[in-house]
Amino acid sequence: MTVVAFAGALACVIGMAVALSQVSGYGWLQRIGRGYVTLFRNTPLLVQLFFWYFGTAMVLPRSKYPFLYVGSYEVKIGVLAVALVSGAFIAEVLRAGIQAVPANQMEAAMAVGLTWRQGFRYVLLPQLWPIALPGLANEAINVVKNSAFTMTIGVTELIWQAQQIEADTFHGFEAMTIVTLAYLAINGAIFACFRRLERLAKIERAA
Amino acid sequence: MGVILPSLPFLLKGQLPDGPLGGLALTTYLAVLIGFFSLIVGMVLGTAELAPFALARGVARGLSTVVRGVPSVAFLFWTYFLLPRLLHVDLSPLESATIALALYHGAYMGEDIRGGLNAVSKGQREAANALGLGTWTTLRHIILPQAVRAIVPALINRFVNLFMYTSVVSMLGVLDFTRCAVLLNNRDLLHPVEIFGFVGLVYFAFCYSISRMGLHFERKWNWAPRIGVRASAA
């Protein structure tokens, strides 16, 4: 679950930054953001996990960079890979959301004397949330589901535990049922939260 | 590149002349196979939305919600380790992976199809009814032509996802592209960046070209519904 929390947070930061770079108007920044989103949306997470897991150990060996290996190296790599992939998807959701708000809204905000920051906060964001929230809910659920892949590099997440219980006790059915239900519960909770947020966003907009 | 070139045949087709098909060829084959079956599952789940009974709609929606809430890995382990024991059947890793992923992606495709059908406004169906068209004629000539414009790009994007996530079958030991890369890396141990970088780029090339195709359709069809006599070529 640590993977989910950290990867989710990091993915949001990456996603927001990249989405902003996409609408920033600087050509090179846009191109970098575009390239990142395209690349990471079109390569499998599993391959990325292996790439970072084995690649980092090779390029930054333990002997020279011991601080990288303090605590669980697997978890860190898992967080990094999941966040990079989900960040790309979140960036896409947010970019689509920002671009769905008519450009003249920001222009009007500038025209009445708001700064860019104020325009973003008080004009763009309230209109962005209702559009972007359903997409973000999907991505949040994807972070949870993608975290399951980190078992391939040895992160001891839920399914790994279930496999372990199966191996130790042969109670595979019970373990797997509980793990599956746990995933459903987590994702159901996320979904319900986003539903509520969506409703709040709509109310705020109406008010 | 020095690591990859000698092993390229292995990465591309597995141990083909001497053993089963593997590598990129198997990944492509799996993607097409799973794509086909999941499309069938998706059609059933998606068109259940049009069913006149609330029960059918509810079951289809519930089923796809549950499937989409579980990681595909969990699904894979269910069909591989547990289903055979429950039903007393013997499934090869390849078969159980195909079943699991077809159901899993089928649920998503069902959602895409459902969304596309719902995007056609209700008034269209009512108008068709008012004109005296039957259920089938309405579906064939009124609903589907409009829905298809939303559904096809969504399905193509789904297929990109499906192609990427065929890599999970490597977790069952199926010798697909990813698994071949892992084996190669285990044997070589010195060039993980090259090996996984190369494999990632190949996946990227495939997925990117498929998604460009989706984008093409999306752009081509992204106009307001033109109903009735086709307007002049302009």
Question: Which descriptors apply to this entry?
Answer:
heterodimer; A: 207 residues; mainly alpha; MetI-like fold; 0% strand; B: 234 residues; elongated; disordered C terminus
What does this structure look like?
- The complex is a heterodimer of chains A (207) and B (234).
- Chain A is an all-alpha fold.
- Chain A has one domain (2-206): MetI-like fold (Orthogonal Bundle).
- Helix content of chain A is 81%, strand content 0%.
- In chain A, helix 2 packs across helix 4 (73-100), helix 3 packs across helix 4 and helix 5 (103-111) runs antiparallel to helix 6.
- The longest helix of chain A has 35 residues, at 172-206.
- The model of chain A has no long low-confidence stretch (mean pLDDT 83).
- Chain B is mainly α and 234 residues long.
- Chain B has one domain: MetI-like fold.
- Helices cover 75% and strands 0% of the residues of chain B.
- Chain B contains 9 helices and no strands.
- Chain B has helices at 4-13, 23-47, 54-68, 72-87, 93-119, 122-130, 135-165, 177-188, 192-221.
- The longest helix of chain B is centred in the middle third of the chain and has 31 residues, at 135-165.
- Chain B is elongated, with a radius of gyration of 22 Å.
- Mean pLDDT of chain B is 82; it is low at 224-234.
Q: What portion of residues of chain B is helical?
A: over 70%
> Distance N terminus to C terminus of chain A?
37 Å
State the low-pLDDT regions of chain A, or none: none
CATH architecture of chain B: Orthogonal Bundle
CATH topology annotation of chain B: MetI-like fold
**Overall form of chain A:** flat
Largest interface: A-B, 40 and 38 residues
Form type of chain B? elongated
Q: What is the helix/strand order of chain B?
A: HHHHHHHHH
